[in-house]
Amino acid sequence: MSVLxxxxxxxxxxxxxxxxxxxxxxxxAKQNGATVTAVVLxxxxxxxxxxxxxxxxxxxxxxxxxxxxxxxxxAYAKALxxxxxKEDSKIIIxxxxxxxxxxxxxxxxxxxxxxxxxxxxxxxxxxxxxxxKAVFSGKAFAFVNILSDAKVITLMPNSFQLNKAxxxxxxxxxxxxxxxxxxxxxxxxxxxxxxEVSLADAELVVSGGRGMKGPENWGLIEDLAKELxxxxxxxxxxxxxxxxxxxxxxxxxxxxxRPNLYxxxxxxxxxxxxxxxxxxxxxxxxxxxPEAPFFKAANYGVVGDAMEVLxxxxxxxxxxxxxxx
Amino acid sequence: xxxxxxxxQVPDTSTKIILKDNNTAISSDGVTYIINPYDExxxxxxxxxxxxxxxxxxxxxxxxxxxxxxxxxxxxxxLGGDEAIRIDAAPNDAYETANYIAEYAKSVxxxxxxxxxxSIDYNNGTTGVMIAELLDVDYIGFATSxxxxxxxxxxxREIEGGEETDTCNLPVVIACQKGVAEARIPNMRGIMAxxxxxxxxxxxxxxxxxxxxxxxxxxxxxxxxxxxxxDNMDELVELLHSEAKVI
Lengths: 325, 247
Ligand SMILES: Cc1cc2nc3c(=O)[nH]c(=O)nc-3n(C[C@H](O)[C@H](O)[C@H](O)COP(=O)(O)OP(=O)(O)OC[C@H]3O[C@@H](n4cnc5c(N)ncnc54)[C@H](O)[C@@H]3O)c2cc1C
Description:
heterodimer, A: alpha/beta, Rossmann fold, 2 domains, five-stranded parallel sheet, 28% helix, B: alpha/beta, nine-stranded mixed sheet, 6 helices, 32% strand, binds flavin-adenine dinucleotide
């Protein structure tokens, strides 16, 4: 038996979060005396594919079809099913991201398998096959038991520390016969905001709220983000007022993020905002009002005017980087 | 063209979660229930816009739940919508919910099925994809705009680090988020009209659940905050480096 894991890449370079997924699969495989087979779709570099061995994959099944460089969820699901049959896989893992979330539920339906969406823990096999996940956008956690023989998991990125080891995976071509229906969605245009750190995957995030007063002050947020190599986010009223693009809006009705560091500037800390960010490992709050509710959810706080504190913090990060080169 | 909008009932966003029964259930004491915001603000309103502009002929609302979910269905009908369907079941997981909705959708034959990007209670975002798989049609998630022309849907959707424009043939299932439409509030005429619109109750062919929630846990309380002087940002950076170990 083999634990199957869907691997994502960008123009041939495997994403860090996919290494996390392979390592996660490897831990489960060890629990079950199984091996790990990674599935790579589209054109990836062979050194990259073999490199999956360093995170615990023994084998890679590779479908070198250029059409799969884009997300075609039906084709992806079909490839996973073919791979699962070949490898006798009962456990299939993808990422809890835009791509994984379009594919994993299809695989679950095909296999009549239970699905845990957004896994935060390894399965606990004492009481069944129980995995922890966030519910109510992070206001609580649920322990979900998969009852079916086949099991599908989407892993929340940035939930486990990566440990690289030695090892090379053996690579095998996988034959999948696709049909027209698998490519029913045609991509007409792609607009990527280049050079920015993608918010969903970011380890560090600097976020601004209404306390930033207006879009003209966002340079202060961006300067700090740039110095840290962080992504930028915002509260809902900021996106509603079009100070910032919609995709930056975090909270219960926006994105849910779990970075290592979340710096909230001029955000009051409403329950709906906290819901989307309270999975962050460390929270820093900068607010001029010492009574702002966000301070109750923070690890570090700075009571002060954002317009004055931000340039100082940016300068301090710069200085730190120079002395820690 | 017929549109089916999937709506689900969730606790109001201001709800503080309180566990009960030895952490195996969530207390509903004092909880107000609403239509899942993504379903209401974006999926339902876009469906109504498509009807108002003559693209769609019928807009149906569907939810899976027992009789206590009827207030949110009435609210949906008050916003608009020609008919509502309540699938009479208390599902354990998304797989069950998707099967019931797909079974009903098959019996009618919809051209477009809209849902929210995820529900704000269980945050799975899986029901829509599962419905698409069960109906053997395409699915587009994280949509930020939807146009329909003839038999073709043109959809902008979020991708990692940007957006793309996709087209595909109907029927299709689309999961909506911000951008797809602007939220509305029901007016008096809508509320009155909702009373006379049909609310069908359908008994599904039972499907066994494949997953279930055993228990819940609250997030650990923060250990307490450390305040740093605004004139000493070097100290904050040092704490983030040596204590929090995040930079
Ligand atoms: C159904 C529903 C869903 C919602 N979903 C979300 C969601 O997903 N995400 C979300 O964010 N919100 C959401 N909200 C809104 C939420 O309730 C709050 O209104 C919102 O988060 C407040 O945004 P804010 O903190 O930026 O603004 P405010 O609450 O106005 O807070 C501004 C803060 O900035 C501080 N400030 C002002 N000037 C300065 C300065 N010069 N320097 C430093 N600090 C300063 C103030 O002290 C204050 O704390 C939702 C609300 C509802 C009803």
